[in-house]
Design brief:
Elements: H1 16-27, H2 44-52
Length: about 55
């Protein structure tokens, strides 16, 4: 697939390295045995991620 470039004033393109990390963490977030979409918003893993961001 060819990569699209976004030159609009909205959200910018993400670097390929970031997209690859997101792809990995959709399967398992930081050795939590769960996807980033499956972890509880009240859990330790989510709270740590929120503090980092």
């Amino acid at each position: 697939m060819t990569q699209a470039y976004n030159f609009s004033a909205g959200p910018a393109m993400m670097p390929k390295e970031v997209l690859l990390r997101i792809q990995e963490e959709l399967i398992e977030y930081e050795n939590s045995k769960a996807s980033v979409m499956e972890i509880s918003h009240r859990g330790v893993d989510f709270m740590e991620a929120a503090q980092k961001s």
